[in-house]
Write a structure and sequence with these properties.
This protein is mostly helical. It contains five helices and no strands. The chain is flat. The relative contact order is 0.13.
Length: 117
């Protein structure tokens, strides 16, 4: 009983792997949007690195999901990942509505661009 719940912790690695795959996609998007600010070599390197990062982490996600008996994936592990995501979305929406109603501040602007200071 204890061993099954303990190995379920390994199954939660799907979340960070998926996040890092999206970071690769973000690198490609940034390279495509900043075509005037990046040199040709830097842009090509960023696109290549982003695509490679995406492919590697999607493959690792596939390995974790295709072979749950090896990596410890089970409903408990996947429930933790989904639950954390859902709770994060709910916390953001509640905070956004509270700050908008009480203080008249739209906190979604903070997620658009964070100043370099």
């Amino acid at each position: 009983m204890f061993y099954g719940t303990f190995t379920a912790l390994y199954g939660t690695e799907v979340g960070p792997l998926t996040y890092l795959a999206f970071v690769g996609i973000a690198a490609v998007i940034i390279a495509l949007r900043k075509n005037n600010e990046l040199s040709g070599r830097a842009r090509a390197a960023l696109i290549t690195a982003g695509i490679l990062q995406f492919l590697v982490f999607i493959y690792l996600d596939y390995e974790f999901l295709a072979y749950p008996q090896i990596w410890g994936g089970n409903p408990l592990a996947y429930g933790v990942i989904i639950g954390a995501f859902v709770l994060g979305v709910i916390a953001y929406l509640v905070a956004r509505s509270i700050y908008l109603r009480r203080y008249g501040m739209d906190i979604s602007v903070a997620y658009v661009e964070i100043p370099p200071e």
